[in-house]
Design a protein that fits this description.
mainly alpha; elongated
Length: about 600
């Protein structure tokens, strides 16, 4: 039997189906339980043990340590988490990824996957046509689960049979007999393979099949699994490239964690492998090292039986088949034990050295300039977007930062009203103009980020939330435009050589105070969309009425003041333009409050 290029493409397709199944399963779960996942992340504290448990849970749920660490990188990039917090979550993610290995080990070989894949798909597809969004998401999760094991089953069929390709087998045999050098070589194979296919779980599945068929020994299979822990750090490293210094440090911390773990394991590699073999035997699952010797001795002593074993011609119930099946499960169980014990020991040691890790990565990835340590547009600058539902929480935080920046423009506008013509006025105008340009860029970048989120697989609640946030984004930018508009009104007043008296200044300040108070209350609501207090919403509407009443009062008194010659008619025009602009700010603020009320208080309605 020769291994053709078509067989190689079928192998790639099998791996792709396996990865696609994981992706669909992960996205279905996120859509079904996105709010719960966001709650878990928002409840994260500085407690390193809580962070570690969160990393374990998130990774076990979404079935990908790469996805969870990419999220952590983006959260640090956004300022949601500190570098120290991210380390504990990443430590936990490495333990959580063993959950996938156990699924593959326990179900991939002990259960005939073909017996449940098609029935599972048959039960799942009707769920996709249900009206309830959660049921659709559950259907996607189950179909993804079926695809994952279908891909695993097909990988087993299309992994090249090295025993039937003498040249390739001789090549591997040469490099597999170099003692510890072979361990290092196969560790490198695990790094490269996982870096290419971007999934340590897929690497685990491939090496598991190769080992159970006797193509490589158990200790070399352990070396590949060990290398996969390094290869899986490639994805967050790529995600951090477009992020800030904190994001790069987080990705570097992930790499260092797995590298240090690999180093201590290599120092005690053979005793550590022996320990895992003993644990597997102690748990009553046999010796995972036996299959390699058994298969090679079978080939030497009974080539006919060996060929029949691997070409599928042995009848069901044959004692050799039963013996091989038992040893196959022993190997799958042993590799899972190796992967789990390695990560548990690694975390048990490293969790207490979080502070040391932070100092090391800060030294390795220094900030070029002090301002690099500050977070700007931090929620939307991450490279890879792994979980659209969870990314919404980042955009919500960025919206608060955006509103706070625009609120500063209200104070700038009030200051420039009292500034006399001259150099200081010009500087303040330039500052407001710069802030308005920044506001425009932030609006566009936040909107683009939300649009990228909307392209992912979202629940109906997630889609409504993004639509509301896009409207809020536009309203906040309009507030910035009004502040800039006030500065331009003052430019025109200067050109007309018109002055304001103390009464006008006092009345304008009264409007600014009312608007500033309303803006502060709006930001309070934006800080926690989903648990906005009814009293705060009512307070916002009351403040809007106060602004409108004050505007009406000032408009009425303006006519009387002009008639009584308190100030010039032209001064009254510019005065009313400023008051009108501030009243518009109040309208935009209440529009934001409406979105908060409509989108995030429906559950209590």
């Amino acid at each position: 039997m020769t291994y053709s290029f078509l067989d190689f493409l079928c192998l790639l397709g099998s791996v792709a189906l396996f990865l696609y199944g994981m992706k669909v399963m992960s996205e279905g779960l996120q859509k079904a339980a996105g709010d719960r996942l966001r709650s878990i992340l928002s409840a994260m504290t500085r407690n390193r043990l809580t962070g570690m448990l969160t990393g374990i849970l998130i990774t076990a749920l979404i079935q990908s340590s790469s996805a969870s660490t990419v999220m952590v990188v983006s959260f640090v990039n956004a300022g949601l988490m500190t570098l120290g917090q991210s380390m504990s979550v990443i430590f936990g993610a490495n333990v959580g990824t063993t959950f996938t290995a156990w699924i593959i080990a326990l179900f991939g070989f002990k259960v005939d996957t073909s017996a449940f894949i098609l029935p599972l798909i048959a039960c799942s597809v009707p769920l996709l046509f249900m009206k309830a969004s959660r049921k659709k998401s559950i259907g996607e999760f189950l179909i993804g689960f079926a695809f994952m094991f279908m891909g695993l089953d097909m990988i087993s069929d299309y992994v090249p049979d090295l025993q039937s390709n003498p040249e390739m087998f001789a090549f591997l045999e040469h490099y597999a007999s170099m003692g510890f050098g072979s361990v290092l070589l196969f560790l490198l194979v695990g790094v490269v393979l996982t870096a290419i296919i971007q999934s340590s779980a897929a690497t685990f599945a491939i090496v598991l099949i190769m080992c159970t068929k006797g193509w490589i020994s158990f200790d070399l299979a352990c070396a590949v699994v060990l290398g996969s822990n390094i290869g899986t750090t490639i994805t967050p490293l790529l995600a951090s490239m477009s992020g800030n210094v904190a994001a790069k440090r987080t990705a570097m911390g992930h790499l260092l964690f797995n590298t240090f773990g690999m180093i201590w394991t290599l120092v005690v590699f053979y005793p550590f492998v022996r320990l895992n073999v003993d644990v597997t035997q102690w748990l009553g699952q046999g010796n995972p090292e036996q299959i390699y010797t058994f298969v090679n001795e079978l080939e030497a002593s009974d080539p006919k039986m060996y060929n029949s074993l691997f070409d599928g011609s042995l009848p069901n119930g044959h004692p050799v088949l039963a013996q091989i099946a038992s040893m196959q499960f022993s190997v799958s169980f042993g590799l899972s034990v190796f992967h789990t014990i390695f990560n548990l020991i690694n975390v048990s040691i490293m969790i207490w050295l979080t502070g040391v890790y932070v100092k090391i990565v800060e030294y390795l990835v220094p900030a070029k300039h002090k301002e690099n340590e500050e977070f700007q547009l931090k929620f939307i600058s991450g490279g890879l977007m792994s979980a659209s539902e969870l990314n919404i929480a980042q955009a919500e935080k960025e919206m608060v930062v955006y509103a706070q920046r625009v609120q500063r423009m209200i104070g700038m506008a009030q200051n420039i009203v009292h500034t006399k013509p001259g150099e200081e006025f010009t500087q303040q105008f330039s500052r407001i103009e710069k802030y308005e340009e920044i506001s425009d860029r932030m609006e566009i970048e936040i909107a683009n980020y939300l649009n990228r989120c909307s392209e992912g697989r979202l629940s109906n609640e997630g889609k409504h939330r993004i639509a509301a946030m896009l409207r809020i984004d536009s309203e906040i930018e309009s507030i910035a435009d009004c502040c800039y508009g006030i500065a331009k009104i003052l430019i025109r007043r200067q050109e007309s050589r018109v002055n304001f008296n103390e009464e006008i200044y006092h009345n304008i300040d009264s409007m600014f105070i009312a608007v500033e108070s309303a803006m502060t209350n709006m930001i309070l609501l934006l800080r926690d969309f989903e648990t906005a207090e009814e009293n705060d919403i009512i307070a916002s509407y009351n403040k809007e009425r106060e602004i409108n009443n004050l505007r009406n009062q000032l408009r009425s008194s303006n006519v009387e003041n002009i008639n009584d010659h308190h100030y010039e008619y032209q001064a009254g025009i510019y005065y009313m333009d400023i008051v009108g602009s501030l009243e518009k700010v109040g309208d935009y603020i209440i529009n934001v409050v409406d979105e908060v009320k409509n989108q995030y208080r429906k559950a209590e309605a």
